[in-house]
Amino acid sequence: MKRKKAEPSTNGLAEAMRSLAESQAKLEQSQLSLNQSEAILIQAMATLTANQGTFVDRMAAADARFAAFQQELADRFARVDERFNRIEAILLEHQTMLEALPEAIREKIGFRAPGNE
Questions:
Q1: Which pairs count as long-range contacts for 48-51, CB under 8 Å and 24+ apart, including other chains?
Q2: pLDDT over 80 at 82, yes or no
Q3: Is 45 in a helix, a strand, or coil?
Q4: 83-87: long-range contacts (C-beta < 8 A, 24 or more apart)?
Q5: How confident is the model at residue 111 (pLDDT cuts 50, 70, 90)?
Q6: How far apart are CA 67 and CA 57, in angstroms?
Q7: 2: phi then psi, degrees, rounded to nearest 5
Q8: Which residues are within 8 A (CB) of 107 and not within 5 positions of it... i.e. 6 or more apart?
Q9: pLDDT tens digits along 66-75
């Protein structure tokens, strides 16, 4: 009978060993999956870093173009303001001349208003 008692404990040990082997195989598969996921993550991070670098370079170039455009626009508006100021001064001068013109014509032709003689 001792053999029969030994057999069930041997069967229990064999079952435990089989279960351990299965668990170890599952653990190894999980580790492999984790390693693959980590490799994919590292590749994605490298791609992201490269894309960020490209983006930063493009933003710097766009900022430089925008700053140049703003400066060109400011220069253009300065020229337009200067030109409008000159035109306004000329118009004011012409307005003064036109306001004085009727009297100058009267004097030129010798016309005197009644009561100014």
A1: none
A2: yes
A3: helix
A4: none
A5: confident
A6: 15
A7: -60, -35
A8: none
A9: 999 999 999 9
Tokens coding 83: 């030109």
**What's the chain's length in residues?**
117
- The residue-averaged pLDDT of 2-30 equals 82
Give the dihedral of Cα atoms 49, 50, 52, 56; nearest 10 deg: 140
Residue 92: alpha-carbon gap to chain centroid:
48
Q: What is the pTM of this model?
A: 0.53
Q: Give the pair of three-digit tokens for residue 109.
A: 């032709």
Question: Running DSSP on this structure, what letter comes out for residue 110?
Answer: T
Which amino acid is it at 100? A
Measured between alpha carbons, how far is 42 from 48 in angstroms, rounded to an integer?
Answer: 10
Q: Tell me how far apart the alpha carbons of residues 103 and 80 are, in angstroms, rounded to a whole number.
A: 36
Helices (H), the chain: 2-109
